[in-house]
Amino acid sequence: MATRRQLLGYSALTAAAAAGLATVGPKAAAANGATVPALVIGTGYGAAVSALRLAEAGIPVTMLEMGRLWSEPGEDGKVFCSITAPDKRSMWFRERTEAPLASFLWLDVVNRAIEPYPGVLDRVDHGDMAVYVGRGVGGGSLVNGGMAVVPRRDYFAEVLPGVDADAMYDRYFPLAQTELHATSIDPAYYAESEYYRFSREAAAQAEQAGFKTVFVPGVYDFEYMRREEAGDEPASALASEVIYGNNHGKMSLPKTYLAKALGTGLVTIAARHEVRRIEQDADGNYLVTVDHRDDANELIETKRITAERLFLGAGSLGTTELLLRARDTGDLPDLDDAIGQGWGPNGNVMTARANHAWEPTGCKQSTIPVTGIDAWDDKRVFAEIAPMPAGLETFVSLYLAITDNPERGHFTYDAAADRALLHWTAAQSATGTAKAKSLFDAINRVHGTTYRRDLFGGNRAFADDFCYHPLGGAVLGEVTDEFGRLNGYDRLYVTDSALIPGSIGVNPLVTITALAERNLEAIIAADLS
Ligand code: FAE
Fold first, then answer.
1. Atom 18 of ligand 1, residue of closest alpha carbon
2. pTM reported for the whole predicted model
3. For residue 17, what are the contacts with CB-CB under 8 A and spacing of at least 6?
4. Which residues line ligand 1 (CB under 6 A)?
5. Over the stretch 141-179, which tens digit does the pLDDT of each residue have?
6. Which alpha helices (H) appear in 396-498, and where do they start and end?
7. For 10-27, how does the pLDDT look when each residue is reduced to its tens digit (9 = 90+)?
8. Mutate which of 322, 384, 494, 509 to test ligand 1's pocket (most atoms within 8 Å of Cβ)?
9. Cα(334) to centroid(ligand 1), Å
């Protein structure tokens, strides 16, 4: 149930976007030369939790986001475009879309020429690994599948041994799921909907091969989805919308945490504001240099904003880059030597199987995954059963496997390019791919099926050169204390996926949110009361 404050906040956001504004909330808090009590970089999960909890504690917050404020409809009346008809809104300053599934029947029919624009999905290329990230107010919540999965407790305790697991499982995971509006699909609807045939088929085949399948909660409003299917509401998940944004049904951050945060009246969000540099002044405050650009990427103004407390929530890549740059250019020289270490793609490997002609997966497919194959005990793989909403029968079963890949990459700062470079090799991906292969070979053996090699380019059965789940770079308890306070500096915090060392065994959004809830509670109690 949305609260009054949440409704107020969401209407402030949509009204600002409709008026073509880049800033929502008190404008002075994002003005050049402003001094603010708390500055949050980014508007994804970690950032949104930070803003809400700080504002609830009475602390005014300024949020800076490099992407757009997405609620102003385009010429077609829609805010976002679909996967099947991408336009300039799809990707971040590209001349052509770069969808994860690059081809079909080896044909280059998926990607389209587009006009460069601050579109909602970015692909950041680093040699053997490309990382997809959301850009815009709401970060990854705008483009993701919304699978809201709590990790296995034993694996969570192994990955983050310094975090009290009892507190996480008793309090912060349930809190995160409530605030994110995570719910489960009604099994009766799932069992009968034409749009989940792909999922039922893949789950049945996994079970016939002896593997366990599970329903996973999601942040899509499944009651809305039912009404979409009945034709009573505009279609979104059922109209091929997801990685380039959902126009309806998804409870993304602008409808949850960010709406609530804005509803306090203490939060300002400035979109198209990219933080470039972080320094410290003589009083120990943080001086942040920010480029405000328009949608043609022309610089409107370079601002300097001083923050008494600075929270980094720019995502694993963004936060790590800002910290590395600050350390290696000498702006914040006392940051920990281990900044940039402990990065991983959450073992992501995408693969697809070719079903027999008598096992169709359906022309109609919901874009929201709701099931997974839980083969963690024997294969160290949790595989999301993913849709392939192509609008025609493909006989494809598609999976995003999350594997237990212990390999870790690291970032270095490239001064000439002024960017962080990821060091990750194809051989490091291969460790996770072997685990995914072991699971899907077993399923193929039982069914006499094979892999699809026409989808990922280069005749490959496994796409392990991109990820959706970047994790690490500023690892909790290594470059920060156990709550995200950075070593070497006071009043400087990391709040996002950079804290998690490379792997969490399931889709990570709930863990990022719950960890931020835990950390902010401790920080507000100890540092701000
Ligand atoms: P994130 O959400 O990435 O937000 C960071 C924000 O900071 C972005 O809006 C950036 O534009 C902004 N930013 C970066 N640098 C700067 C700067 N210098 N100045 C100003 N702003 C900046 O961070 N996870 C799940 O659990 N379930 C799923 O079903 C799922 N599906 C996914 C599907 C896709 C296609 C993708 C790309 C991701 C998916 N994920 C999923 C991953 C999930 O969205 C991701 O882990 C979180 O969004 C990361 O949250 P953070 O708070 O770390």
1. 275
2. 0.98
3. 24, 69, 70, 71, 72
4. 41-47, 64-67, 132-136, 139-140, 143-147, 243, 274-275, 313-316, 318, 322, 468-469, 496-497, 507-509, 512
5. 999 999 999 999 999 999 999 999 999 999 999 999 999
6. 426-447
7. 888 888 777 777 899 888
8. 509
9. 27
